[in-house]
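Quick one: structure tokens for this chain, please?
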Amino acid sequence: MSMKTIWKYELGINDNQIIEMPADAQILTVQIQHGKPCMWCLIDAIYELKKRKIRIAGTGHTIIGFAGVYIGTYQLYDGDLVFHVFDQGYIK
């Protein structure tokens, strides 16, 4: 029987990030918690961990190539910095 849990992953501000998460993870949202960008995912821990590529782009920044599937937007410093988060899928 599968049991799902919500896990939180803190994100850096760098453009490309690799995050290990269970193979069936469903990304739910990206928001700021305690001044840090975080991503919440619905997971089933029975699946093996796989590397997933997350792309972050600031407003006005150029995105070359595949941006990915849009996840959400978050703001830092009272809206002075705005970032958009994309899921580029699992790395094979």
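The beta strands are 4-10, 16-22, 26-33, 36-44, 49-58, 69-76, 81-90.
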